[in-house]
Amino acid sequence: MQTRLLASAAALALTAGAAHADYTLHVLHINDLHSRIQSINKYDSTCGDEGEAKGECFGGIARVKTEINAMRDKLKAEGANVIVLDAGDQYQGSLFYSTYKGKLVAELMTDIGFDAMAVGNHEFDDGPTGTLELLDNVTFPVISGNLDLSSSTELKGKIKDHAVLEVGGEKIGIISALAVDTPETSSPGPNVTFQDEADSLAADAAALEAEGVTKIIALTHVGYVKDQAIAAKAEGVDAIIGGHSHTYLSSTDEKAAGPFPTMVKGPSGTEVPISTAYAYSKYLGHTVLTFDDAGKLLKAEGEPILLDASVTPDPEMVARIKELSGPIDELKAKVVATSEGDIDGNRDSCRAVECTMGNLVADAQLARVKDQGVTISIANGGGLRASIAGGEVTMGDVLTVLPFQNTLATFQAKGATIVKALENGVSQYEEAAGRFAQVAGLHYTFDISKPVGERVSDVMVEKDGKWVPIDPEATYGVVTNNYVRNGGDGFKMFAAEGMNAYDFGPDLADVTAEFLAANQPYKPYTDGRIVKK
Q: What residues contact 387, with CB distance under 8 A and at least 6 apart?
């Protein structure tokens, strides 16, 4: 394996005259792995044996293990200080999670040897009892400081506010916060309550400082935009290792969303570095922090490490994955259709504009129930987890796009409720939130320069073969998935105002696969149903 060295040009001096490193800490970190147990292709979906043979694959948990072990061993051999962190969302994203749930996550993470993990929102996808499968089976702390678990019989006492790691004779405080909208994006249940992320982190940092811990890292699962706000507000945070938004940072790649690390001036005037390493196991983050004797951060540098074909997957982990994949592979290998082109399910597209995957899924939903008087279909962009390459489409491809085992849900709603739903869809546009609405049987325009709640216009529905303005007082038949229908991703208006709901239709992945099969060769398309001003 080719040794990766940090370029001196990547160094970001935070203070002048820091000629000697009093204490340097190497942080190896991942985030948002989302059950990419097997290696992935350029579309972030499963990369098979043929792709491996051609050197076209990235990541996978076995490559993550190889690179972490190699980096950790090398650094320790050089006498360096190193910790390994995960910023959350190991759960959900492939059949490995659907089949084996949190116990497998715990097994593989423990095998690699993480030092701490932040709770991600998807760690609640199977409710608090599902979260316990991770918490009860790991050997390292899983933390989140802004959760009030005092009323949760399952989780009370199970998730700590922080962890303190002793590395090279120094104490490193690890604090954490989880996005406060998790009740809208996952299923923590009514007994888990959330506190403001920045306020919670500042309080936990102060508590650690009172105990003499002077080097404090926030391991967050709130997203890149919120991380920057936290860095500017939360006193006592020396550095942030983040997740949730799947943001790619790099100081050498102009396509990145920002530099790695991104520097934000903190409340005391000191620069706070923010690092995050994309998602899906494609990169290993490497952030190097240098502190003076008093615990003041002097320097931050780093760059994500691409886990491409030059990284050989750990053979023991490969063998374990092969053992587990037997019952999964047969289902995944089934070819269900062909596509004449790539079907774009990239989050940068499907959470921002009309995308071909959004049209596919919304069309599939509507086609399945059109004989029930349903005329409008809404699919949340965040429910679309990968793209599909042109050519043969397997069931595994479809399940990678739609891994949540959501069911088709139908209901009736007033036109005014549907407009509220579309407003919700663009209410967090700047954060690339998963609530962005992909649609069928519906056209709409939005303008993000307008205030939240006033961004949507020109909502049109099809009537008698023509497009007409939606009637706020008319009742329409709507189809979505059970997660959205029950208020997920902020669609609370569907749960509160929807009528005659039925949430127990067929699995959305099966519906989509059957639609592809009935319309093959499938031709990916967009047609202007969503317009951004």
A: 43, 44, 45, 342, 343, 344, 345, 346, 357, 401
